[in-house]
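Students often ask why we bother predicting the structure of a whole assembly rather than each chain alone. The short answer is interfaces. A chain on its own may look different once its partners are present, and contacts between molecules only exist in the joint model. In this exercise we take two input lines together and write out one structure for the complete complex. Read the inputs first and try to guess which parts will touch.
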Amino acid sequence: MTNTGTQTAYQYPTYVILGSGGHTAEMCKINRALMRQQSQQAQKYQPVRYIVANSDTTSQSILKAALPDTSSQDFINVPRSRSVGQSWLTSIFTTLWALLWSCWLVWRDKPKLVLCNGPGTCVPYCYAAYLWRLLGRLPAHSKIVFVESYCRVETLSLSGRLLLPLADMFVVHWPQLAARYADKQNLRYFGKIM
Amino acid sequence: MQLNVVYVTVGTTRFDALINSLTSHAVLSVLQARQCHKLIVQHGNSLPLTEIQLKYIEDHFGIQVEQYTFRPNIEDIRAADLIIGHAGAGTCTDILHNGKAGLIVINDELMDNHQVELALQLASEHYMYYCTVDQLSVNIATLAFEALKPYELNPANMQKLITALDDLMKF
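Now the answer. The structure tokens for the assembled complex follow.
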């Protein structure tokens, strides 16, 4: 791939973190809107890499149905931090393993944007991006964007509470949350978007 | 408004009280009064109705019941005149985006269920109704389902988000 000077800035990927069914369906709507805008603009987000937990084939097929242009290479499979029913003791190790993976991937790929909307898996990716940016591994202009889940009307999700302090933009769906966090500069409300 | 086809869905939750209420005389008779002849029940992890109950409902109320655990349900949603569901975000959005009459039944057994927030909010904006299991029959009998508002989504709002994202990225 040949890159001219201006394009070099755009070679870093956009990381879109997918979670379980409901979260993925919401993320698809945002992604479709993002990719459908004037092609030149959409192009600037490329290459887009979708982070999916191993064994989550549902999210992958939901996304492929919504955005037929995506290919298998656009997906990065990562270890799941915890499976339903997994014992507490082994969870510690699998969670640590998932955490290390997120740190390694973000260090390797230097995403210009981490875009996520609430599944628990997104938290380590955002913290990793924040940390590596702080330490200068990621360019200073790389961004972390969190879209709260549509079903959060009055209170933030746990992921939301963990990420509100470090997200560059934090989107909520309901006026109650916008009013409650009116003092947060990074918190944005655009009306009903889905 | 006639409710010829009623779809009951509980997603992945266990909501025996709701599924069970479908066998009560009170609920069945108001469904019958609303000309219901077909009840599609997605019972998920709740206990399904028994063969005896299914036969009883068909014989005494003229309502044919089709029940299943899980399946892609877009056809069931489209076929329904009324969707009765738990307060899941998926059910709420299915109701909104398919322009269906919806009645959300709050599961009292699930404490700290934040998803109720969404159902209450949408009900307060007149996009759907909500009630508890005890109130189900009265609500089916008396609610004005035709008075519910269609969900209006302004595409400009999503565009504002995308523009904000472009600005943030300096694209």
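Check your guess against this: Confidence is low (pLDDT under 50) at residues 1-8 of chain A.
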